[in-house]
Amino acid sequence: MGDETEGFIGRCIAGAFPGGGARLLGTEAIPFGSNELWRRRVEHGGAAMELVLRRYRHWITWHSSDDRLKAAREARAIEHVRGYGLRAPALYGHGPDWTLVAWVSGQRMTPGGARATVDAHAARSLAGVLAQLHRLPPPDGPFPRVTVAASLLAIRAWATALGDARLSAAIERLRPLAEEAPVFIHGDPNPSNVLLDGDFGVAGLIDWEDAAIADYRFDIVTAYWALLLRAPDVAGDFIAAYESASGRPVRDLPQWLAFATVRAWAVAGILRASGAALTLFSTDEEKAAAERRLDEAGF
Predict the structure, then answer these.
(1) pLDDT tens sequence across 140-181
(2) 7, exposed or middle or buried, with CB in 10 Å at 0-12, 13-18, 19+?
(3) Cα–Cα distance between 237 and 125 in angstroms, integer?
(4) Res 7: pLDDT
(5) What DSSP letter does each residue of 262-292 carry, written as one string?
(6) For residues 105 and 69, what is the distance between their CA atoms, to the nearest angstrom?
(7) Residues of 57-92 as b/e, b for ≥16 C-beta within 10 angstroms?
(8) Can you say how many angstroms the Cα of residue 255 is from the centroid of all Cα atoms in its chain?
(9) Which residues contact 6 (CB under 8 A, 6 or more apart)?
(10) Which of 3.40.50.1950, 3.90.1200.10, 2.170.130.10, 3.90.480.10 is the CATH number of 62-89+104-145+182-251?
(11) Which of 72, 129, 197, 210 could form a Cys-Cys staple with 203, CB 3.0–4.6 A?
(12) Phi and psi at residue 41, in whole multiples of 5°?
């Protein structure tokens, strides 16, 4: 670890414990995702604690190309949902480009690979957490009001910047979707952001920097699309459980799924162009699958 990184970590710890007295016991890099992550063991006030420090490598969110409020948004979202008893990691501090939260013990719902074994109870547990989240009053703070039309504008601009004619053609096939009253959403509840306990319940929902005020289906189809990709046997359980827990049907699911798939294609492309090591939507097979979703949705 270089001096610059050590200095950055030290400044973050000092910012999170301004009274001093925090002693670093160890550091372990977490090689996951498109940001820099470290697991830190810290002693403070005679107690040892496990923390996760995240430094953002880019300012892209699914609704913006230059979103400098990611850290502040994640911090405010965590404070809000924990106030209502939702399982999110405790917040210890944040700065312009970093957040420091408690380590959440558990295994990722889908740790990686093209497919994964996911217990149906885990899918139903995630659905219940999202239904609970979508019932919360929206928080104050830096949360954008995002619509399908606004999201289409963003991904259309990304496709143009990438010079990806095939992606642009897929986006042009999409149409505006009927939206319901906006709610507070996580923004990226894909299963890699879900940590499970030993009974396959949700131990923690992490990575809140994409939180927004929007139609609940932005969340639902993000999770559903990822489950279809990695754990298709339980994707239907997830939708059924959400409908039961929320008391409302997930309307226009094929159209929203096609939209989410094409949006994921665009987000993967722009993140890869920014330097993220992503392979998603790098094959003809994945792009053809997105186009088939458009066909199935009647676009």
Answers:
(1) 999 999 999 999 999 999 999 999 999 999 999 999 899 999
(2) exposed
(3) 10
(4) 87
(5) HHHHHHHHHHHHTT----TT-SHHHHHHHHH
(6) 27
(7) ebebbbbbeebebbbbbbbbbbebbeeeebbbbebb
(8) 21
(9) none
(10) 3.90.1200.10
(11) 197
(12) -100, 120
pLDDT of 294 reads 98
With a cut of 70, which residues of the chain have pLDDT below it? 1-3, 110-117
Amino acid at 125: S
pTM, full prediction: 0.93
Tokens representing residue 217 in the block: 């289906």
pLDDT value at residue 286: 95
pLDDT score at 154:
94
Helix (H) or strand (E) holding 213: strand 212-214
Could you say which DSSP state residue 182 is in? -
Closest by CA to 61, choosing from 227, 226, 187, is 187
CA distance 100 to 55: 9
What are the domain boundaries of the chain?
Answer: 62-89+104-145+182-251
Q: What b/e sequence results for 103-141 when a residue is b if at least 16 CB atoms lie within 10 Å of its CB, and e otherwise?
A: bbebeebbeeeeebebbeebbbbbbbbbbbbbeeeebee
